[in-house]
Write a structure and sequence with these properties.
The complex is a heterodimer of chains A (234) and B (387).
Chain A lengths: L5 E12 L2 E13 L4 E5 L6 H9 L6 E6 L2 E2 L5 H11 E4 L11 H6 L9 H14 L15 H14 L4 E5 L7 H18 L2 E5 L3 H4 L4 E6 L2 E2 L3 E2 L6
Helix pairs in contact in A: 4-5, 5-6
Chain B lengths: L1 H12 L3 H28 L1 H5 L4 E6 L7 E2 L2 H6 L4 E9 L13 E4 L1 H7 L3 E2 L2 H9 L3 E5 H7 L6 E6 L4 E13 L9 E4 H11 L6 E2 L1 E6 L5 H11 L7 E5 H11 L1 H32 L1 H9 L4 H37 L11 H28 L2 H6 L3
Parallel strand pairs in B: 4-9, 6-8
Antiparallel strand pairs in B: 1-11, 1-12, 2-10, 3-4, 3-11, 5-8, 6-9, 7-8
The chains are: A alpha/beta (234), B alpha+beta (387).
The complex binds adenosine-5'-triphosphate and magnesium ion.
């Protein structure tokens, strides 16, 4: 078997609140293969977002190792981590988190500002990404002129435009109706099967989770065993 | 990248139309008021600013109201370093009404006007003035204010020299530059002296001040001392100082008013600083999740801080631009409304620079705390601020 895309070793996370230690994650240990599509489920407050944020490198663990593409990101300094995120991780949020003052095209272009691409190349890449999510005709629309589903598709285009190997999605359909949610999940599936992206998705929705290859349940800071739905395409 | 971010900062700045509009109006108004008040302050010092360093003023050591014997002039002229001497007497007449105040001086025409080359007078007018004992020369603004023309008869009611006086306009001088006082009124000292000598023989042949032209401004202190030592231990001791010091002596009498105005102008800036800081803090706080998203995407905290700073700078630049450009018409209007209270009332270059500096200080101070805070916020905490 090839190197895992993500591997967590004895990862823990706790918060101090009022002199009391709150364990959010306890000794988490698991691997994700490249090209895998994993759904993380669990009750509210179980630490799903926390775990996802650790893997995406926007939060630091209290202990343990997080190795993504052979880099232990827990040891990176903040600036290094930022560069690493820019090139390795695509983010999809529940509330899309688009910049309201930028139109769809510009929102998608945003991550490319951190690359060496010139303006023309950035434009081309962004147009291509918008085309992939089926929003070429909305490129000059601002977020407030788009439906929730469309905004999330713009966000997906933004997540894939810099061609990261890992895509993290925190309840990407949490704010959408069933039809839009279905479209978003189709897109995520496409990213996984056609572009080979490794995807980790936090969701409350059983239907959404079924699109993944495997599901992990998180409860009181501990992971359940892997529940396979379909074989990982490696 | 920079252009893209600049546009983003500008769009952020104008995002809330009403808030942006009110903030801009506030900045514009503050910068305008600041400029107006600074103009008032510099108008106060206009006399001192226009003073030549090649002129000294000699007056009675006891008080300006005591005249000096006119024969002092001869003695002063003999002092080493002195190139010319003239003299002037304050007249203090009233033109129709008290509120029409303007300064009037009885002068020795030839020597006086030679000492003040900043007052431009046509040769023909100068000759006509010298020829006419009852003639007078008035500043361009003064003539404009009362609609005087050459040949007009100007009645003045004497207050120090009681009686009804009348003068004929023989010349209208123009100032060399915008800092020159064009509101003065000059007539013949001999005309005044005759009047005094007839009525109060012992008060005749005297002058309020002597104006001394010197070779080298660097010798002012030395020459002043030489002049004053000439008359030490006489009945009328003198006090000689540079024209600038003399003018500043007048300002000193009203210094507390100037200080108060200056203070108000700084308070205005302090207020707009607080308003602007509040606007920026509010905007940055609302965008916590956006800034956290940018950081998640890989943008450094520096970029976030830069975005906020540039937004603040842009707002202040636009507001200050409006405020500064309104300063000229406002100063003109206020100058007229104050009915020529100040002989020189212009927007000085230094005032504009002060306005620019004030706007810069406002922009930087307003951005510092929100920028610093946004830079510090942890990504996960910032993202939570969504709902
Ligand atoms: N900054 C923080 N300080 C203290 N406690 C925190 C902090 N962030 C998260 N927590 C706690 O960690 C726990 C896990 O939070 P997390 O957001 O990961 O849950 P979640 O599984 O994503 O929940 P949800 O399904 O509601 O999104 C919660 O109990 C939460 O209160
Ligand atoms: Mg969560």
């Amino acid at each position: 078997m090839s190197q895992p895309a993500v591997s967590l070793r004895h990862v823990s996370k706790h918060y101090l609140r009022g002199g009391q230690v709150i364990d959010v994650l306890k000794d988490i240990d698991f691997d994700i293969a490249p090209g895998d599509f994993l759904a993380l489920m669990g009750p509210s407050g179980s630490g799903k977002s926390t775990l996802l944020n650790l893997i995406a490198g926007i939060d630091q663990p209290s202990g343990g190792q997080i190795i993504v593409d052979q880099v232990d990101i827990a040891t990176l300094a903040e600036a290094e981590l930022a560069d690493w995120r820019a090139s390795h991780v695509g983010f999809i949020f529940q509330f899309y988190n688009l910049m309201p003052v930028l139109n769809a095209q510009e929102n998608v272009e945003l991550p490319l500002m951190l690359t060496t691409l010139n303006a023309r190349q950035r434009k081309e890449h962004a147009s291509l990404a918008l085309e992939m999510v089926g929003l070429s005709d909305r490129s000059s629309h601002y977020p407030n002129e788009l439906s929730g589903g469309q905004q999330q598709r713009v966000a997906i285009a933004r997540a894939l435009v810099s061609d990261p190997s890992l895509i993290v999605a925190d309840e990407p359909t949490g704010d959408l109706d069933r039809k839009s949610a279905g479209e978003i999940l189709d897109l995520l599936g496409q990213l996984n099967t056609e572009l080979g992206k490794t995807i980790i998705m936090v969701t409350h929705d059983g239907r959404a989770a079924e699109r993944a290859h495997a599901i992990r349940h998180l409860e009181k800071g501990e992971l359940s065993a892997l529940e396979m739905l379909q074989p990982a395409k490696v | 990248m920079i252009l893209f971010m600049l546009r983003m900062a500008l769009k952020n700045a104008l995002r809330h139309r009403l808030r942006a509009l009110l903030t801009l109006a506030g900045i514009a108004l503050a910068i305008l008021s600041f400029g107006l008040l600074s103009t008032v302050v510099s108008a106060w010092y206009a006399g001192a600013d226009a003073a030549s360093d090649k002129r000294l003023i000699t007056r009675s050591a006891i008080s300006l109201v005591f005249p000096l014997p006119i024969n002092y002039g001869e003695k002063i002229r003999a002092v080493e370093g002195v190139t010319s001497v003239s003299w002037a007497n304050w007249f203090g007449g009233v033109y129709i009404e008290e509120k029409n105040f303007f300064p009037q001086f009885a002068i020795e025409p030839t020597s006086y006007l030679r000492l003040y080359p900043e007052f431009h007078l046509e040769d023909a007018e100068l000759a006509a003035f010298i020829r006419d004992r009852q003639g007078c020369v008035v500043g361009r603004k003064l003539a404009q204010r009362f609609g005087w023309k050459i040949g007009d008869r100007i009645p003045l009611r004497g207050t120090i020299y009681a009686g009804n006086w009348s003068f004929i306009v023989r010349g209208i001088y123009t100032g060399r530059d915008s800092g020159t006082d064009e509101n003065q009124f000059f007539f013949h000292w001999t005309y005044l002296n005759e009047w005094i000598t007839q009525r109060y023989p012992r008060r005749g042949n005297s002058s309020g001040v002597f104006v001394i032209g010197i070779r080298d401004g660097g010798e002012a202190a030395l020459i002043s001392e030489r002049v004053d030592s000439l008359f030490r231990n006489s009945l009328a001791e003198t006090l000689t100082e540079t024209e600038k010091a003399f003018q500043l002596g007048f300002v000193a009498m009203t210094e507390s008013i100037v200080l108060a105005i200056q203070l108000v102008s700084y308070v205005v800036i302090l207020i707009i600083m607080a308003v602007m800081a509040n606007t920026m803090a509010m905007s940055a706080r609302e965008r916590t999740a956006e800034y956290a998203t940018l950081k998640a995407l890989g943008f450094s905290p520096g970029v976030i801080g830069w975005l906020i700073l540039v937004e603040s700078l842009l707002l202040c630049a636009i507001g200050a631009g409006i405020g500064i450009s309104l300063t000229w018409p406002a100063v003109r209007a206020v100058g007229q409304a104050l009915d020529n209270l100040f002989p020189v009332f212009n927007v000085a270059n230094s005032t504009v620079w002060l306005q620019v500096a004030a706007a810069l200080v406002v922009a930087l101070s307003a951005a510092t705390i929100p920028a610093w805070r946004a830079m510090q916020v942890r990504i996960v905490d910032g993202l939570r601020a969504v709902g």
